[in-house]
From TrEMBL:
InterPro entries: HTH_MarR-typ, MarR/SlyA-like, WH-like_DNA-bd_sf, WH_DNA-bd_sf. One of its GO terms (molecular function) is DNA-binding transcription factor activity. It comes from the Bacteria. PANTHER family: MARR FAMILY REGULATORY PROTEIN, TRANSCRIPTIONAL REGULATOR, MARR FAMILY. GO terms for biological process: response to stress. It holds the Pfam family MarR_2. SMART domains: HTH_MARR. This is MarR family transcriptional regulator.
Length: 149
């Protein structure tokens, strides 16, 4: 493995943090226009509109304690993005169903999360190179899904 210069590595880390902060700023501002926090948006994004999901499974996907998921689901429900429904296969179980409004908002959240305005100046080749390098860095020990906070 090649040794990198401390100065070059430090500059790259600072640039990654700067870009990450800018992306987070844009994303949070866009989500706020929808009346969503990043946590609520991530929860909605994790739900499949065509497959009801038990709240405990959503908690697992989000990497949070099942006891904390109730408040998040309450917010989703209050915003009319999901509804709780009794599972016909197991009446003791309640699943989360994405509402029509939830589908619409989820589509907008997907577009916000995929927003590439900061990457617009890059050519297709530059974008492909950046993608390869970012995958290489993340494969070096970066968590698969950092929490969206």
């Amino acid at each position: 493995m090649a040794q990198t210069s401390g100065t070059a590595a430090g500059d790259v880390v600072r640039r990654i943090l700067h870009v990450s902060d800018a992306m987070r700023h844009f994303m949070e501002a866009d989500l706020a226009e929808l009346g969503l926090t990043p946590a609520v948006a991530r929860a909605l994004h994790e739900l499949d509109p065509d497959r009801p999901l038990p709240a405990r499974d959503l908690a697992e996907r989000l990497g949070c304690d099942p006891s904390n998921i109730t408040l998040l689901v309450d917010k989703l429900e209050r915003l009319d993005l999901v509804r709780r429904q009794v599972d016909p296969a197991d009446r003791r179980l309640r699943t989360l169903v994405v509402s029509d409004e939830g589908r619409r908002v989820r589509d907008r959240v997907s577009r916000i999360v995929s927003d590439s305005r900061l990457l617009a100046p890059l050519t297709e080749d530059e974008l492909a190179t950046l993608r390869t390098l970012m995958w290489k860095v993340s494969d070096g020990g970066c968590p698969l899904e950092p929490p969206l906070t």
